[in-house]
Recover the amino acids of this structure.
């Protein structure tokens, strides 16, 4: 790994609001409206990232360069990609990029080979027609996304996902399966995740109740703490590892992808890793003005911290990418949901937006009204594949047309004069036309990005996910926050453990607020 010292800048860390470069950037951003005649498309690892729907000016481009220099972007990018201490509050690297290098370090190569051999043997023996993947958060969403994307038309193995601690989740995940032909995969970085271990215990009991002779032989663990999995009873040859320097929400690139490989083949996993690696190379080498993750990040900072948009909408125009929204939602909101800077002070500038959405065209019939005419609105990332993998070209033409039309409507809007003329052309009487035209006005000028994949290949999906990963890194760097920790999540876990003890009979903590204390007493019964 590279230099592991904590970076505080040449003369100490400076909060963003105090940087003179930020003041210049903010002014340039406010004076750089969206122009529908400016075409700006970046080609990155096979993706076309069209940022024409974001504000731009020469002054903003210069201010962007200056702000990134003030944050030592080049140094910090190298530190991330070379395994230096990027996660400063936990004093470790965030080296997920090492998991997808074409010529990885020995320990990564060895674990990658173990996974491949495990899947090949299982396939050759036609073992485990059912896989129950038990994990939550980063140990769930990435695998779910890959299986949805490439197994949507069916595979010879059926995969069930169980994440939630709600007993209905594990009950439904096991329902109707043949226990003798089912593999249980437990994915947890620490192997202490309460939801995963509790659901895993129920799965173990289910195997035993079905008369499985050696139930632990049908359980696999994926963790950064293999010794804990061994103590749980899982055989050593069924424990796959990743490392402390891999954040949970980036663990898709590790052995967590075992379920993906069992469902849709090891070639899919390899293809996603290759696409992500290509985006890593683009991020490392492309100049700032042609660097897709950087431009996506800086547009997002303009929209959130300068223009005040509180959320970001993700609109994948591909049915197979239904799980992309929660995947990006977790990546961005868990990474950028911070209000304390690296010096321990308040950022005092709006940071990570709420991330939400659903696939188009369903989204158009759900919330696009709000995007077009709501008082707040939100920037939109449109994601679409140029080519479809089905045999109905008319469907794909309609999908593409809807995607482009919705984006153009956000960009151009509709003036009162245009709306009035439309009403008059429809034969409406003058008074009604003047009244109704107000209701048909679209403000326009609402920011969006269009990301075009040639088709939904593993390579393209891997590149897309890495694009968002590096975008998050750049935004964390500029805002001066650590995107790789998650102390807010940890605090809730601690409180939940105490309340669980109380629900099980321990004395109720008098420090609870009145409402919590009331419901602890009610639920104890």
């Amino acid at each position: 790994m590279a230099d592991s010292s904590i970076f505080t800048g040449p003369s100490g860390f400076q909060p963003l609001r105090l940087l003179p470069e930020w003041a210049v950037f903010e002014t340039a951003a406010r004076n750089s409206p969206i122009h529908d005649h400016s075409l700006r498309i970046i080609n990155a690892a096979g993706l076309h990232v069209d940022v024409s729907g974001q504000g731009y000016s020469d002054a903003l481009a210069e201010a962007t360069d200056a702000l990134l220099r003030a944050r030592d972007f080049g140094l910090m990018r190298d530190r991330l990609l070379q395994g230096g201490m990027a996660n400063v509050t936990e004093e470790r690297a965030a080296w997920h990029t090492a998991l997808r290098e074409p010529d990885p370090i020995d320990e990564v190569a060895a674990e990658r080979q173990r996974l491949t051999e495990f899947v090949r043997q299982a396939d050759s023996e036609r073992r485990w027609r059912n896989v129950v993947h038990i994990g939550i958060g980063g140990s769930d969403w990435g695998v779910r996304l890959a299986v949805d994307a490439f197994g949507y038309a069916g595979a010879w193995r059926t995969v069930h996902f169980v994440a939630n601690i709600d007993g209905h989740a594990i009950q439904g995940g096991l329902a109707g399966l043949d226990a003798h032909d089912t593999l249980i995969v437990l994915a947890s970085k620490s192997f202490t995740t309460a939801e995963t271990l509790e659901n895993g215990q129920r799965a173990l009991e289910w195997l035993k109740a079905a008369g499985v002779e050696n139930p632990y032989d049908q359980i696999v663990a994926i963790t950064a703490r293999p010794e804990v999995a061994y103590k749980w009873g899982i055989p050593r040859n069924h424990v796959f590892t990743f490392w402390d320097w891999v954040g949970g929400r980036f663990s898709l690139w590790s052995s967590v992808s075992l379920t993906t490989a069992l469902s849709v083949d090891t070639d899919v996993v390899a293809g996603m890793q290759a696409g992500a690696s290509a985006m890593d190379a683009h991020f490392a080498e492309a100049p700032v003005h042609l660097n897709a993750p950087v431009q996506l990040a800086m547009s997002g900072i303009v929209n959130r911290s300068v223009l005040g948009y509180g959320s970001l909408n993700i609109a994948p125009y591909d049915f197979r990418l239904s799980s992309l929204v929660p995947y990006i939602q977790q990546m961005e909101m868990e990474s950028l949901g911070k209000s304390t800077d690296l010096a321990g002070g308040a950022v005092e500038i709006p940071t990570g937006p709420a991330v939400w959405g659903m696939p188009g065209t369903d989204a158009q019939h759900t919330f696009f009204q709000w995007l077009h005419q709501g008082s707040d609105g939100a920037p939109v990332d449109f994601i679409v594949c140029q080519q479809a993998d089905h045999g109905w070209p008319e469907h794909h033409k309609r999908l593409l047309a809807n995607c482009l039309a919705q984006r153009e409507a956000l960009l151009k809007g509709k003036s009162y004069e245009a709306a009035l003329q439309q009403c008059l052309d429809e034969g409406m009487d003058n008074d009604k036309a003047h009244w109704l035209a107000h209701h048909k006005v679209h403000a326009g000028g609402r920011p969006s990005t269009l990301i075009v994949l040639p088709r939904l290949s593993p390579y393209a999906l891997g590149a897309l996910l890495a694009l968002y990963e590096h975008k998050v890194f750049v935004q964390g760097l500029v805002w001066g926050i650590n995107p790789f920790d998650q102390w807010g999540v940890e605090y809730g876990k601690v409180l939940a453990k105490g309340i669980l003890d109380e629900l099980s009979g321990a004395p109720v903590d008098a420090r609870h607020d009145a409402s919590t204390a009331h419901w602890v007493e009610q639920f104890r019964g």
Remarks:
- The radius of gyration is 25 Å.
- The longest strand covers residues 311-317.
- The longest helix spans residues 458-479.
- The CA atoms of residues 3 and 447 lie 39 Å apart.
